[in-house]
Amino acid sequence: MTSNRPYLLRALNEWILDNGLTPYVMVDAEAAGVQVPSEYAQDGKIVLNISPSAVRELLINNDSLSFNARFAGRPYQVYAPIATVLAIYAKESGNGVVFPEEDEASAEDNAATAPGAGKPHLQVVK
Predict the structure, then answer these.
(1) pLDDT tens for each residue of 2-38
(2) Among candidates 57, 59, 47, which has minimal Cα distance to 22?
C-alpha cells in the first residue's frame, strides 16, 4: 500500500483552514532532497506556515510538499519529500498529527513482519 501521509496532510490542512486556524508543518531540514532556508531550522527541523496568506502555489501530492514563500523578504521555493514531513498542526491550538520519523521502506518492512500481518485488527466495542 502507498503511504497515508500525503492523504492525512491534505485532509488536516483543509480541516485546520476550515476552522479558521493556521496550518504549520514541521519538516526534517537535514533529510536528503529537502529544500528549505536552513538558516531558519533549529535542531535539524524547520516549522513552516503553509496558510494561503503565507505561501503561493501550495502542492501536496503523493511524493512531496512544495510551495513558494518569502523569508526575510527573499523569495524561496520550498520542497520536501513527503517522508520528511514530520507533523502538521494548527498554530493556535496545537491540534494535529505527528508522524513517525522512520522512512517508509522500514515502515513497510515492519508492517510485513509484524505478528498477524495481513489479518484484520478490528474489534467490536460495546
Answers:
(1) 899 999 999 999 999 999 999 999 999 999 999 999 9
(2) 47
Torsion of CA 7, 48, 54, 9, to 10 degrees: 10
Taking residue 71's Cβ as centre, other Cβ atoms within 10 Å add up to: 13
Integer CA distances (angstroms), 88 to 51, 55, 72, 122, in order: 12, 15, 23, 27
**DSSP per position, 66-102:** EEEEEETTEEEEEEEEGGGEEEEEETTT--EEE--SS
List the alpha helices (DSSP H) in the chain: 5-18, 104-113
Report the residue count for the chain.
126
Q: What are phi and psi of 20, to 5 degrees?
A: 70, 25
pTM, full prediction? 0.79
As a whole number of angstroms, the distance between CA 125 and CA 13 comes to: 30
Which amino acid appears at position 11 of this protein?
A
Nine-digit cell at 92? Answer: 493556535
